[in-house]
Write a structure and sequence with these properties.
heterodimer, A: mainly beta, five-stranded antiparallel sheet, about 0% helix, B: two-stranded antiparallel ribbon, two-stranded parallel sheet, globular, OSCP1 (chain B), Organic solute carrier partner 1a (chain B)
Amino acid sequence: MYHKEKSIQIKNSASALYNNLSVLRIAPRRLTHFTVVHANMVNMVSASWDGLNYTHRQLQSKEPNVATSTSLIMQMYESDGSIMVYWHALDTPETPTAQAVFARGIAAVYENYICVGVSSGAILVFDVPSKGSNITLSEVLEEHKESITDMASECSGSQECIANLVTADDGGNLCVWKSGEEFQLLNKIPGFDMSCSSVKLWKGTAVAGYGTGQIRLYEAVTGILHAEINAHARWIYSVDIAPFSGLLLSAAEDSLVRVWHMTITPETNSVEVAHLHNECVTDTQICGARFCDGDGYAFAVTGYDLSEIIRYIQS
Amino acid sequence: MSMRTLPLVFINLGGEMLYILDQRLRAHNTSEDNSEKGVWSENDRKRVMNDIVGTMFSKAFMDELLKPQQLYSHRTMKTVLTRLAHASIMRLNPASMDRLYELMVMAFKNQVFLCLRPKDLLLISYNHMDTIREFVKDTPMAVNQVDETHRKIIEAYSSLSEGELQLLRQTLLTFFQDMHVRVSLFLKDQIQNPNGRFALTTSGPVPHGTDVPGLIRIFDCRGREVRRREFPSGGSYTSSIREGSFELHGNRVIRLGMNMYTVDHPEETHTSRAPSVKADGSPNPLAKEELNLLARLMGSMKTENKPKDESGFRINLFNTDKEEAEAGASASAEESLYGVINIQAMQDEQAASELARIAGQFEEEEEEKPEKPSNNKGEELLAMMDDL
């Protein structure tokens, strides 16, 4: 169904972090940006669609200012990484606790918000104006009690979905939100003390990957469990959805990437999941996997200690 | 990232170091009646073990480690581990220490990489502590220290969730990133590929708490299963095995972290660098914090009341100091060949009398005092070098 394409070399190897690959397709310029995290550095590769040009850029986190006891947790750049437009630091507690301070999980949410998860369980909501760089912190959502792991906005493109953000934490709990000037909590789906490392939202269905290797499909607003897959033998690090075709991608530490197909009919509340394809990245604990386009025609994969982005294309 | 990595790093790296030193020190004990001159006796070896374990598991040192803090650079870790090794009468030259450190790190990296689930990191640590306890079992004070530390570790880590332990594991993996030193034993057992990467199998038992992959279940709105379908898992997995014990004593079940070195095969600890090894040249913005930690850790290590010029057993790779200096010059050429960790006791007259003094302090069974090395000794060392 898929065959391996030419890999893209990156300057550093990928670190073992959940969802450690981002893909941004810029159709008007016929190129795709790939970003992979290595420790405290972001490696960006911009690949032209004709496969002839690859430009690399590295973004380093600003040095933490230890004297003022703040933790820098987020920096925002232009989409090509050229200019930093915003950064945000958190106050670290007076007495150092055993809990580290870091950001994890990010999503762009309708209409003009960017949400970022924090190790404390808080979610920072930033208002990003369509013009100018006057980004402001709009709200802090404090519903999760454990570290945020991942979050996702509704990707079907439909504005009829009531819920447009799902957030996940280390206890496997999912929170379902409706965005706005004040975000509204629509539902809380409890976990079973097993970390949810990756989550996506499509046609009102939350697709979640867990540390046990399971994938679960929940109806986000009601919390009804539609499907449960014993998908992987190790911790899942990444799930992704191709919104136009309903293809689902899952990748784990077991070195396997799997492609599934979902059929979701919200009207009849029916969900169907079929397994389509497996790819094994030999001796590699996969840490990131994403479709490169909305149809799922191609997908890319990163692995711990691997200095390349491996690509697969439909045969 | 995680602020709780240091205690586990030192217990596991320190444990690997003790495994290797134990193998080396036993390997030299070739004579049956301990009449060999200049050979490490059983008591010498035990003394080295006791000294290192006593320092590593001292209350002051462990309490420093247990404070929440970041994991710093390899340089810091190596410095502290060298100091720990030198808490004994043994001395390692820098080249040997470099090789030893690489071996320790690759062994621990392999264990962290392969452990089925994050919680197994604790079982790996307990495996190390169990074996360390065995090394010092004749010294009740040392055993107590290990037990005390074990209790503190249990207290500090048992309340962590799987997610927090995975963060700890990810922090360790980042620390080990890009290290692909090839280890003879790993290559032989096919744990490691010739390119330095570890083998990851798609077969074997699944972790505790995970189901064997291959099943899709569909539910209706009332939670009843309406359909189930199977899919090919692409591997051959079996159900999880029983869980190991997280108590002070017990069967850990998993084998990661156990001593895999055997006395008869010193060549197992040969290492060689993969062709493209990148050194970490980026400036460390946290250098000041790192130096503070280093100062605290060194300060918390109990220092013996030894005079500054006391000579312990010097560890050299070569017979004479001159050759050692020459070797230092050609070190870069050496690097592409097999690096050998060689702990040979080079005894000179001064060291011999020192040993006598130390032995006297212990009121142990008097062994035959080592005397001035004869020419035969030199030949013997050369012969041992040739074998490697």
